[in-house]
Amino acid sequence: TTYEKNPILLFFIFLSIAILILLIACINFMNLSTIRAVERSKEVGLRKVLGALRNHLVWKFIGESILLTFIACILSIGLLELLMPFYNSLLGYSLTVSWNTLPIYLFLAGIIIIVGFLAGSYPAFFLSAFKPIESLKGKLRLGKGGSIFRQSLAIVQFSISVLLIVGTIIIMKQMNYVKTKELGYNQEQAVVVQINNEDIFNNMKIFKNELQSKNDISSVSLMSGEPGGFFDNFTFEAEGQHDIWKARTEFADFQFVKTLGLKIIAGRDFSPQFATDTTNALLINRTAATQLGFTPEQAIGKWLRNTYWDSTKRRIVGVVEDFNFLSLKEKMDALVISPSEDRRVAVIRINSRNIPSAIATIKTEYNKVAPAYPFEYSFLDEKFNDLYKTDIRQQNILSVFSALAIFIACLGLFGLASFTATKRVKEIGVRKVLGSSVQSIVVLLSKDLLKPVIIATCISIPVAYYAMNQWLQNFAYKTTLQWWVFALAALITFCIALITVSYQAIKAARANPVKSLRSE
User: Fold this and answer.
1) How far apart are CA 56 and CA 125, in angstroms?
2) pTM of the shown model
3) pLDDT over 70 (residue 5)
């Protein structure tokens, strides 16, 4: 796939997501700093009266931002050390941070300065622009422009959050799709033993025959590669074809079809009743027959010759139904199954429900033929985790990122709700005196605060559709992008935002109007 061929691409994708989350945090700081402007307005006015210039105030506030970023960086290093074991288990491999190198400190210093400037620049210029007379009289107004800017920042926050939620849902949906897709072969209760040492290689037929005599073993097949494993690519001359034809090749014994539970759709399986099958017979899959220009029935009796190493024209005796011997990220390919001697794997079908007993039987027979080597095995259905482990990790990491992004965005929305409730406290008091109910006031406040969330959802859904459609192109077999996925992401975001806003709205609506109107 794109990510496996170019792992640096995956690194940049997750780095981009981390930067987006950092951007959400910076937006929070900018929003909350400007919201606190009223509280700091008298400080700014007093400093200006005492002779402070605007550029001095700008650098003061940026310096505060950089200091806060530095403290956050120190805390993040502690969290990194604490959570590194969890993160390593999420990635599937071990990462370490070397704190005794100069580049890491230069990187941290760069992050502190860039984030400090990014988060602190707008509040610094905003606060330093206050007029001292208005500030000291307490008549400061933040203005409509500032409100629009804050709402715009909230829209950016929630656009990122919705994008990450959609990504998480679609990756989970795709992984569930490939988990449950019918692969065309029976992968249950099938044990894979690698033929990877000289002792078992020289005695593999004895190993196979001994296992097949046991009651808890259904069948054993020796082959060059199990489904999901390695399959050779060879070129063939084919009857009726002018051009050289290329196909995947499986070298297997006569129990291959039975052990994997494949379906013969034309012709027959390999059989010891036909003496020439060992040297002159082949099986192909449906896709191979189609590529050769035949129906499965027409392919029976046609010959193929492996141009790489074989001078014999072998006849096709049977066609098997297509089965996903490759990853579902790859399209179905032509497969030629030959009984030639090339054995690298033993696939053992267990007959008993007592799997530990069957494994013990296999281990006993293995130790008889290869006592000097450790017995190692895997289950055929475990191949899924190996084939899609990168995508599963993407799903897990993206889920964590999405939760983090939503949490940080809701912190910002909580601050925005708190500020709005404080700013409109007298309006709420008047409305209550005039007979407004708590419910109507909550609806009034929530409606204004949830507008950025609704706008963000409308903006992010088309972007999410495009991005996830591109990601799904990595799979030959993929789920569909259904409308309910985007509706669910929007609903999740809206509900979380509503819960966040409602707390402050209810608190403001239930406040005693006498306190808010006392000075009027």
Assistant:
1) 11
2) 0.69
3) no
